[in-house]
Amino acid sequence: MKYVIPFLGLIVLFACREGNKENEVVEAEREAIVKVLDTIPQEPKLKTFEGLADTTFVRLADFSDDFAYDLRYATENNFLKAKVYDCAECYTRVKTAKALIAANKDFLKKGVKIKFFDCYRPNSVQYKMWEIVPNPQYVANPDKGSIHNKGGAVDITLVDMDGNELDMGTDFDYFGKRAYHDNTDLPKEILDNRKLLKETMESHGFWSIRTEWWHYNLSAASNDKVANFKWECND
Fold this sequence. Notes:
The chain is of the alpha+beta class and about 240 residues long. The chain has 2 domains: about 1-40; about 55-220, Muramoyl-pentapeptide Carboxypeptidase, domain 2. It is built from 4 helices and 7 strands. A hairpin with a 2-residue loop joins strand 6 (about 205-210) and strand 7.
């Protein structure tokens, strides 16, 4: 019996050592997994509007990842044939962003979403545009400014969940009767698409202008001041 107890002690000691080795292996594997996960880019966490005044300018992509973008004035693919933004960003006032997100939720239920051509436009950019096309029929006089300069206007269309644009009858910034809201001499598909866009946007406090199917102003932003806030470009 006197030999049995030390023998049992050795077994317990060996088992503890083996258990410790297993724990060390598990811990090493866990640390290795954590290191691998740390190298994988994480989706940025969306911001909230908490504590922000309705007139604060915000980058829309920081608050929703459900939109699409083709910001034409950051390219030469526009009626000006000139790049007037230093980089492509979509900023609006907080109240405009809230209304856009709410409208987009309704669009998503129908399998489509908003795509932006233009958002807030600094007044200095309005002056650039006026220098190229000094015609109030196409460009708002920068001395007075437009609702784009107030952060309350957007130029948009709709795309399906694969990014394909719905047929609206013309391209963005087409200046002709085919782009008019009251032009009903168009195929039913086009009229239905425009109706979906217009009725949904209007139900969230936006109003359109007769000659541009893509342009929407937030009613609550009409009395805001023209601004020249400029965003930073990271490129």
